[in-house]
Amino acid sequence: MSDALLNVQNLEAWYGESKALHGMNFDVRPGELVTLIGRNGAGKSTTLRSIMGIVGKRTGSIRFDGQELINRRTFQIARTGIAYCPEERAIFSSLNVAENLTLPPVLKAGGIADDALLRQFPNLQRRLKSQGTKLSGGEQQMLAIARILRTGARFLLLDEPSEGLAPVVVKEIGEQIKALKTQGFTILLVEQNLSFARKVADRHVVVENGVVVDTLTNSELEADMARVKTYLGV
Ligand SMILES: Nc1ncnc2c1ncn2[C@@H]1O[C@H](COP(=O)(O)OP(=O)(O)OP(=O)(O)O)[C@@H](O)[C@H]1O
Asked: What residue stretches are annotated with the ABC transporter domain (predicted)?
């Protein structure tokens, strides 16, 4: 699609000899929040890792903001304005919140300034001096998201931010993600939690065995939950 910010075509990816993506095709438009949904092992996380250039081998095309990323290295991809928040959150346990926040380098102009960031994430402001290990799962997730917002990236790859969190915290994370969309960030979100996904997303891309098998707007999903539940086996 010509107005896409990200356009993925025939994306294949491997871990060693083992092929995980078999020709993914989808796009994301500027300002959109798109989810990748599908069963365990479908290839959702691998898609994010492939966009970021952190799988063993990948082929096909990943066009972002008019540039081809398929042969670029991760640090070059980061400089185009894409940031990745992994499922495991990757908080440095020996560093405190302030140190974790400021560790990733600012790569582009337009990142959220530290004081604005702490206003946006008041619970991090309260825990600035707390060590990574002392944070709750929700605080770790907020920190993992907050620290990529300083870098100047405008396209966020978020891997299962709701995972392992209590419903009240999931709701809070959902509000933060919606606020990011309102601020103009474009977001590609991997999500197993359908009730979370439908509250935040514009569109859903269904992944099965390393390919895209369906794409639905959020209203289509609301109108036909059965269609998606079949894919997810729920
Ligand atoms: N580091 C790895 N080494 C080898 N194979 C992997 C690795 N990570 C994932 N895979 C395999 O790649 C395929 C896709 O996995 P992926 O993690 O992308 O799925 P997913 O849809 O994100 O599911 P989940 O939510 O369970 O992580 C699976 O068959 C998985 O076993």
From this structure: 6-234
* Position in ligand 1 atom list of the atom nearest CA 210: 14
Of residues 46, 51, 45, the one with CA closest to residue 82: 51
- What is the rounded CA–CA span in Å between residue 61 and residue 198? 28
Q: Which atom of ligand 1 is nearest to the CA of 42?
A: 21
φ and ψ at 182, to 5 degrees? -60, -30
Q: What is the mean pLDDT of the chain?
A: 92
Pocket lining: 50 vs ligand 1, CB cutoff 6 Å: no
- Spatial separation of the C-alpha atoms in residues 100 and 133, rounded to whole Å: 11
Structure token digits, residue 52? 């970021």
Nearest-angstrom CA–CA distance, 67 and 7: 10
Task: Show the tokens assigned to 74.
Answer: 């991760």
Listed range (104-108, 144-148, 175-179, 209-213) with the worst mean pLDDT: 104-108
Complex-level ipTM = 0.95
- Fold exhibited by the domain 6-232: Rossmann fold (3.40.50)
Rounded Cα gap, residues 37 and 179, in angstroms: 21
- Domain boundaries, given as residue ranges, for the chain: 6-232
With residue 38 as reference, give the H or E element that holds it.
none
Written as six digits, the tokens of 173 are 């994370």
The C-alpha atoms of residue 82 and residue 186 are separated, in whole angstroms, by: 10
Going along the chain, which residue ranges are E strands? 6-15, 18-28, 33-37, 57-64, 67-68, 82-85, 155-159, 186-190, 203-208, 211-217
